[in-house]
Amino acid sequence: MKKLKLLLPLFLAGLFLVSCGEKPNDNGHDDDHSDDGQGMEMVDPPKFIIPVHEADNLYLNYGNNRADFLEEVVNEQNPDLEEEYTPTRFVTVDFDEMYQYMKFVKQQSDKAKIKPEGLRFYFGQIKSKGSKGIDPGVETLFFNPTANFDGIEGGISYAIKTDVSGNISAVTVGSIIDSSKTQQTQKGANLLLQGGIQSLAGNRGHLPPPPHPGDPDDYH
Fold first, then answer.
1. More confidently predicted of 97 and 153
2. d(Cα 206, Cα 208) in Å, to the nearest integer?
């Protein structure tokens, strides 16, 4: 009995040391997404990450095989331009704004009970006219989330619709555009005017003066 009394404190002390040595795992991360020691979740690189030099080759290929051709043709077709046309080579979007945009898309999609499957980038042109009325405008990129819809093969761009009863659903961008081209009821027209459609298309990128082909600071 006396020996048992001596061993009991040692046993309890051993349990205390073991419990202190265990690290709680209540952060919801698995072994593949460990913590860096500063509270930041570590993630694996996406599969579409490419090497720096491969990206540089893509950039130079576009400059040599597309941008030069566009510049030559547009300037030839618009000889009265006040300034020589140079094609847009890149568009910069603010990182924090893009991060907020992605969260907004997720938020609105959750309300409509639809899962965003992709982010589709479109080429566009800003149709601004110069003082002489001849200005081809500059190229830009805009983007829209895509999702799967029943009866439609592949992902398609969508927006969020709120009907007069407050029900929220996802609708294809095409259905919105097509409906605006046809005769609508006054009720439907008023719904659109009241903001019944929440667009998820993003643009407003920064368009810097494009560098010229051969510029050593092209992709820098």
1. 97
2. 6
Question: According to DSSP H, which parts of the chain are helical?
Answer: 2-21, 52-62, 68-77, 95-111, 173-181, 186-193
Q: What is the pTM of this model?
A: 0.69
At 84-129, the pLDDT tens digits run 888 888 888 899 999 999 999 999 999 999 999 999 999 988 876 5
Q: Which amino acid is at 8?
A: L
Domain ranges of the chain: 50-90, 91-198
In sequence order, the 6+-apart residues with CB closer than 8 A to the CB of 108 are: 160, 198, 200
Q: What is the C-alpha separation between 40 and 33, in angstroms, rounded?
A: 10
Q: State the Cα–Cα distance between residues 156 and 117, nearest whole angstrom.
A: 9
Residue of 176, 215, 220 whose CA lies nearest to 63 = 215
- Secondary structure class of 97 (helix, strand, coil): helix
